[in-house]
Amino acid sequence: MKNNTKITVNKALYATIVVTIGIAIITVLAEISPLIKGVLATIFTHHWVGKSILVAVVWILFARYSNDKPLSHPITALHHTLLWSAIAITVYYVLHHIG
């Protein structure tokens, strides 16, 4: 039986893309919703610690159990993910401080 839980470069890439998107989403949601920020702070002592622990757990799970199929353009996929996540967070904070 093939061991599908071995972490490979492809699985690590998928995990990194997923957690990058997740960080952008949870960062904006925690700022919009005091409830989410409060739950993270209550469970993990601080919302930043909570986000970090959740991201680490999600990365490990995706790196071990995700698809091992290679992406056709892995660096481009990672760059686009990083760029759009950074844009989303930046736009949120700019609009938040303007309005």
Question: What is the fold's blueprint, element by element?
Answer:
Blueprint: H1 9-32, H2 34-44, H3 47-65, H4 74-98
Helix pairs in contact: 1-2, 1-3, 1-4, 2-3
Structural class: mainly alpha
Largest sheet: none
Give the total of beta strands. 0
* Helical fraction: over 70%
- In the predicted model, the low-confidence regions spanning at least 5 consecutive residues are none
Silhouette: flat
> What share of residues are in beta strands?
under 5%
Instruction: Count up the domains.
Output: 1
Structural key phrases:
single chain, mainly alpha, 80% helix
Overview of the structural elements:
There is one protein chain. The chain has helices spanning 9-32, 34-44, 47-65, 74-98. The mean pLDDT is 93. It is flat, with a radius of gyration of 16 Å. Helix 1 (9-32) crosses helix 2 (34-44) and helix 2 packs across helix 3 (47-65). The chain is mainly alpha-helical and 99 residues long. It has one domain.
Provide a compact summary of the structure.
This protein has four helices and no strands. By secondary structure, it is mostly helical.
